[in-house]
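Quick check before the chapter quiz. The format below is the same one you will see on the exam, so make sure you can read both the input and the output lines.
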Amino acid sequence: MRRIRILAVLAIACFSALALASGAPAGDFADEPCSDVGGDRFLCPTATAGSGYSLRILLKEPYECSVMRVTSGSFPPGLSLASEGVVSGTPTRAGEYTFFVTVSYENCGADFKSASDRQFTIRVNEQQARLIVSTAGLPEANIGQAYTAPPLTAAGGTVTSWTLASGVLPTGVTLNPNGIISGTPTQSGSFPFVVQANGSPNNDTRQLSLFVLAPLDLGLAPAGTPIAKQPVPVNMKLTEAFTWGVKATGGREPYAYTADKLPAGVTLNPDGTVTGTPTLAGVTKSTITVKDGRGTADTLQVTFTTKALLAFHRTKQPRVGTVGKNYSWRLPVGGASETRIFLVSGAIPPGLELDEETGFLTGTPLVGGSFRVKIWVLGDSGTQISKKYRIKVKAAKRTKTAST
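Here is the expected output.
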């Protein structure tokens, strides 16, 4: 009899221990946001297939080291459980899904509490009918030309009208209530805006953009100034760094620039600038072409003139002077040099003098004859040139005297 009592006491003690062991772990979870529906099962807020869903499973005593995971059961497809207890995603299939979530403390240290679990249920409803704007884009328009886009479309419901929710349309273009965008645009560029479909069972919006093309035109940089008269004259100095450029407007980017011919020492860059240091004097006639992203092209005729810093005129010779008469001759020197210093060596005709700044040889010749001189000219960047000349001075004419 005593033995039976001892066994009964042991049985009761074991049952009590089991009850405490099974109830304590589940008690780690808070009773929200999922509610107790009995049978150790908690029902979470309802989700809808095709719609975003998010909730966080909470603990009564949250620990940063705790980790949650789904350990058994059926979890809604399209959703995921993060280690901190956040359920998120877009469910893809309707149904009722029951699963166990276990919270463990293996990251909290060897002496921390043991793992705990709880049973949860998430019901996913069928996807509801919804009005959705289905127009994905609009055809391009041309500035100054009448434009009509295909009517805006939507699926999943009934549209009663279309309105502009935000943004602006190009000047001259409007959105009609029937969903037709039309008009004659008077400005070019890209115009983003949001259209709204008003209807049932809901309203919906869609971001769209209308690109208005202007005619492709190749003008002068930096603003792309249109050129009415061609060819465009461009002057450069020999051996001096040079920067110039063209710029396209209109059309559709990206732009690609090419040139059939350029002066020696300069290049056309991808952005339309012409840079370099000319290495050869002379004239170069060039055709610069730009093509836009659609393959449309425009051209610009340019005449590049590379001037030497200093140069003697090839054919001009000194004036012939006369003894006793005023004489003036300007040395025939051209070029792009802003600074010029003139020097002379040799047998300069008596009575004449060279102005070192202006290059004029002036005076009154005193003696006739032929005089060989060498002229030197110094210019910018240390440039210097020289040339030999022969200056002739005629004797004065004798006047006749009357005989007595």
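If your answer matched, good. Confidence is low (pLDDT under 50) at residues 1-25.
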